[in-house]
Amino acid sequence: MTLPARVKLVEVGPRDGLQNEQAIVPTAIKVELIERLADAGLSAIEATSFVSPQWVPQMADNAEVLRALLAGPQRRPAPSYPVLTPNLKGFDAAVEAGAQEVAIFAAASETFSRKNINCGIAESLKRFAAVVDAASALEVRIRGYVSCVVACPYEGAVDPAKSAWVAERLLEMGCYEVSLGDTIGAGTPASIKRMIEACAAVVPIERLAGHYHDTYGMAIANIYASLELGMAVFDSSIAGLGGCPYAAGASGNVASEDVVYLLQGLGIECGVDMEKLLVASQFIAHFLGRQPASKVARALLARQSAR
Amino acid sequence: MTLPARVKLVEVGPRDGLQNEQAIVPTAIKVELIERLADAGLSAIEATSFVSPQWVPQMADNAEVLRALLAGPQRRPAPSYPVLTPNLKGFDAAVEAGAQEVAIFAAASETFSRKNINCGIAESLKRFAAVVDAASALEVRIRGYVSCVVACPYEGAVDPAKSAWVAERLLEMGCYEVSLGDTIGAGTPASIKRMIEACAAVVPIERLAGHYHDTYGMAIANIYASLELGMAVFDSSIAGLGGCPYAAGASGNVASEDVVYLLQGLGIECGVDMEKLLVASQFIAHFLGRQPASKVARALLARQSAR
């Protein structure tokens, strides 16, 4: 079993994380957080979401955040700042603000799709087709998400074939990559491997990413199991931002610090500087008035303060 | 790669966990905790430690705890209640209180051995030989621990050959099983696998157990990697009791709830009832005035309270 030599991390804390925080984080703090994450070496940072501020007030400053990043310090290579666009209206606003990459989000569970975006899976794919077409015409890259790839908070276990079918549709439509989300973190290496194997049977694994929540403490083991299958792209969230909307007080997205620690231990390159990542983690945790939800951050910070 | 069909868990919370808690837990609470753990199906529960109360005041009631358990409800099959015995004096006191199984503890790091038990590794093995001989004469079973099998808080990375050498000595001396401790939780699946492979090259893997701390959030991935190598015994601590003596505020022993969730997800039998385990977890967490340090416990309890 050979693990990938290099892994790409997609940092989702500023969007998927902060969107699920109670606090409305000021634009300047978001921009500083994202700049610090870029300084730490993260090459893809999901910056914001172009959804209605009535749905997601936390992301109401989407255009300001994106504009500030694009006008900020230039890095080579430039990080990508994908933004979430649920529909054509959001897409147009994102492009207007300078977006060069967008993301769309489907689900592998009918009930979750209806509750999350008010339409079934097939209907959601139709809606997204319009966004994909518009993006292709403008040479804007488009990434796809699939929620509930192993389990759904309403339906329970999800058939791996269902996840594979949605992933295949999104790639066919024109997404360059599909991120497979264990939205409620219920997966273990067994269910995660079954799901990836079903997906990799219909699409190249190079185009699949793992997006695992750590609700039950399984995310790092699930990433390890995914690496064993050759998956080499993972989403993670600085300081474990976001929590779990389906279980108050439980963990949400896997923490970027923990993923980087795992990868470093396995000798896998990811281009991220742990010291700088910890500074970014402390920056946002301090703003939110709590400890980072990352065991690595807590252990390393405890060691630092003991020196 | 075939995972074991069945795994044995050794619950170490009442000893390794409570020994590292600030609070002195009353005897009756300890006994009730252990009884609840036995009710949940745990067949091996480390009950206490026969060390000097000057060193470890938390375990000063060792004889009372063990006597209460042995006089308590009889289960079939009877759980084993191993107790830690650092020397012949402790061993005699343990046997006097009715111990049928004891445990001795060496280290794979010279510096850790000197700081923890005031003598080097070779000297510690000589001291333990007297305990093993006494135990063999009385047909008392003896389990061995090795600390710092992948890393030491003082020396850094530990040579896998060193861990294998100590494990082999303990088994040769007469231990029926050796528990390999990642005492500071620094290991990842790469270093854990190298260490197990070195050990399994000199002793049968059936006689090795994994004892992993979750300081850096890697314990569940490390258990998964160990299962892939065929290891089938793991130590864990209810509610993640114990914390980390080397990094205040960091996690300690991997939580039993998280290990049971992993095993259930992998379809591996361990004989533990999750509902009853959660009740035991809440019982001791409530006594200590905090949430269980187990993501599984927090997520399941959050779901219960949302019902």
Automatic annotation (TrEMBL), chains A, B:
<dbReference type="GO" id="GO:0046951">
    <property type="term" value="P:ketone body biosynthetic process"/>
</dbReference>
<keyword id="KW-0479">Metal-binding</keyword>
<dbReference type="GO" id="GO:0006552">
    <property type="term" value="P:L-leucine catabolic process"/>
</dbReference>
<dbReference type="GO" id="GO:0004419">
    <property type="term" value="F:hydroxymethylglutaryl-CoA lyase activity"/>
</dbReference>
<dbReference type="InterPro" id="IPR013785">
    <property type="entry name" value="Aldolase_TIM"/>
</dbReference>
<comment type="pathway">
    <text>Metabolic intermediate metabolism; (S)-3-hydroxy-3-methylglutaryl-CoA degradation; acetoacetate from (S)-3-hydroxy-3-methylglutaryl-CoA: step 1/1.</text>
</comment>
<dbReference type="Pfam" id="PF00682">
    <property type="entry name" value="HMGL-like"/>
</dbReference>
<protein>
    <recommendedName>
        <fullName>hydroxymethylglutaryl-CoA lyase</fullName>
        <ecNumber>4.1.3.4</ecNumber>
    </recommendedName>
</protein>
<feature type="domain" description="Pyruvate carboxyltransferase">
    <location>
        <begin position="7"/>
        <end position="278"/>
    </location>
</feature>
<comment type="similarity">
    <text>Belongs to the HMG-CoA lyase family.</text>
</comment>
<dbReference type="InterPro" id="IPR043594">
    <property type="entry name" value="HMGL"/>
</dbReference>
<dbReference type="InterPro" id="IPR000891">
    <property type="entry name" value="PYR_CT"/>
</dbReference>
<keyword id="KW-0456">Lyase</keyword>
<dbReference type="GO" id="GO:0046872">
    <property type="term" value="F:metal ion binding"/>
</dbReference>
